Amino acid sequence: MKTLSIAIKDLWRAFRSYFALAFMFGVPILMTVLFAFLFGGAGGDEDANFTLPVTDVILVNQDEGNPYVQDLEYGGEIVDSLGEVLVTILKGEEFADIMDIATKDSESQAKAEVDAQNAGLAVIIPPDFSNALSAQGTEDVNIEFYKDPDLSLGPQIVQSVVMGIVDGFSSATLSYDSIIKALESEGVVLTAEERMALIDALTQVADTALEENTADLTIIPPADLGAEEDQGNFMTTLLRGIMGGMMIFYAFYTGTSAAQTILEEEENGTLARLFISPTDTRTILNGKLLAGVLMVSVQIVILMVFSNLVFGIHWGSFGLLAVFSVGLVMLTNSFGIFAISLAKSTKQAGILYGAVLTFTGMLGISGVFTGGTPVEEAFRFLPLLVPQGWAMRTIEYVWSANIGKTLLFSVGMIAWSLVFFLIGNARIKRRYA
Amino acid sequence: MKEIAVKTLNLDKSFDDVHAVNDVSFEIHQGEIFSLLGPNGAGKTTTIGMISGLLTPDAGEVWLLGHSVSSEPKKAKAALGVVPQEIALYEDISGRANLNFWGKMYGLRGNALSKRVDEVLALIGLEDRAKGVVSKYSGGMKRRLNVGVALLHEPQILVMDEPTVGIDPQSRRKILDSVKNLRDQGITILYTTHYMEEAQELSDRIAIMDNGEIIARGTHDELIDIVGELDRITLTISGDPVKAKDAWQEISGVEDVFSENGVIHLLVTDSNRILSGVFEAAASVDVHINSVEIQEPNLEAVFLHLTGRALRD
Prior knowledge:
The structure holds 2 protein chains of 2 kinds.
Chain A: H1 2-15, H2 18-38, E1 55-61, E2 72-74, E3 77-79, H3 82-90, E4 99-103, H4 107-115, E5 121-125, H5 129-136, E6 144-147, H6 153-185, H7 192-215, H8 234-268, H9 270-276, H10 281-311, H11 318-342, H12 346-364, H13 367-370, H14 378-381, H15 387-399, H16 403-431
Parallel strand pairs in A: 1-4, 1-5
Antiparallel strand pairs in A: 2-3, 5-6
Helix pairs in contact in A: 1-10, 2-8, 2-10, 3-6, 5-6, 6-7, 8-10, 8-11, 8-12, 8-15, 10-11, 11-15, 11-16, 12-15, 15-16
Chain B: E1 4-15, E2 18-29, E3 33-37, H1 44-51, E4 59-64, E5 67-68, H2 73-78, E6 80-83, H3 95-105, H4 110-123, H5 139-151, E7 157-161, H6 169-184, E8 188-193, H7 196-202, E9 205-210, E10 213-218, H8 220-226, E11 231-238, H9 241-249, E12 254-260, E13 263-268, H10 271-284, E14 288-295, H11 299-307
Parallel strand pairs in B: 3-8, 3-9, 6-7, 7-8
Antiparallel strand pairs in B: 1-2, 1-4, 4-5, 9-10, 11-13, 11-14, 12-13
Helix pairs in contact in B: 3-4, 5-6, 8-11, 9-10
């Protein structure tokens, strides 16, 4: 009962503090709202009116064509290669909101435009584009994307669009090739008109695939996560990443803040008064720990529920989310105990707030902001040097419904927790023995 | 003979190179106000820390109502209420919330807790401000609440560590009166102070501490007897102090002459009768008296007599 009384008292005091409330709920929500407005809309439902940033794109079409793709009518124009089809599609009105297309004759010219930051992305269509698609599918299609390193979102979207279209081509051309070969094996040779009709039909299939692919675009696809995103909406996926990162970032502040009340009470004399009362040290420290557990739990639940209701963010299956939440609660509080055990005063603890938590927090959630940039690969692994990175990776696996890796990384979080708790608890007990 | 409420035996405590408490032993009887009087740094708070179980003695033992603080801490602490020197309250919640919380820490629950909180609020005169946040209280109100927290569980022993430091005379008077009231209710009180007047007014018995040791103990009268009920004449002079001291030593009724921090002290049997002779003797050796202070025997004089230093130094 005394443990609970101490926890409730700490909880009550925390929820009366504007500063604590701001860090627990205000700032994470504000950051997410800011990003929501930054990208053009705050709503998260399926029909959200989201405005993507318009990216200046330079296209270089080096495609030399293919015997099967000659004098093909596409979009009211006669084209001789799939490269031309790709250029025509990208110039279409449906993409005008996300890319502004210009063409160049050479690769070097296009790259120079990107280097000069006149364009955000150069798309180099190789000479064997049509041949490669007709023969092998997309695996050997080497479209080069040359990106402005200062931009991540726009080029990433365009890159996804292009690859989506190429996937559509692949299915169409493979079908065409297979059909022609099958007919020839039966001794049937199509006339030029018949071939054109077949291409038209397969192009319709490609267009349909394109529409499906563009609807499924995601800004930060977890490259090796395996499962598909459970929700297709780009906006909610974006906001989910940001809110997830913010939630983890600030949950660590809450855990540390809860543990810091030990130092505050020591300086205010109330800790000594607790020790004088017939309440043993273990009960007092357990009460403090329970307060932290409750605070972080409340923070996680409120942020998830709020972002679900307001932004339409879907956090994944309840079971995996529960596993992640337990891990996060344990990790944040044990980290708090560890951090506070290293500080002798609230002043020193303040430095921990300002420096260590900010640095480790930013590193831990850096993957949210480095997707599609040249440092993306490095930031797949660097965040795992800090506990926040393990929490971020775990929630990403929750989102992709990867049960195995969610459990694996949750075990990792718990392992971090045990190390932090054992060291921190031993130091604090020794201090107050 | 009343039973012993508090007993300390050979308490010893050091912090690094500082020997804070050295072989301190005393007993306090039930219903008694026992004061530890001494200057800052004398070891009073350290002694209280060991009595309340906050500090572990390097040597020695403490018993509260017969329960050892080291081997039966919960039973011993349950009998004890402590008013710390610094205000130890949660300033961001209300006075009532503070009392509720601390009551729970002493095992009070439900209706018993609510009833006791109301009683304590009435006792410390904070019923009207009970719902107010403590940070908005005056210094005196915080001091009273600080005392109230220690009274919640109706302790049989109350330890008060310099409870009147830094407060206005009116609040100080309220606290001193409440201490006497608590004694009248049968509560045993251990009171520490460096104010001689408080110890003199409140205490049944007094122990004088200096440099971690008890250098004298007894009732007020017993302690005064140490200086032999002599009056003290304190003088500041211009001229040769050695000649002045020699001249004053010759006066009949002057028992002792010594100097401290630039002033000269005369311990005399009857200051009124001797004073004129003091001036005459000074004039005879060309010494000019700048100021004179006459002090009848008190605890300050006892401390000065025992240590050669003033209590407030």
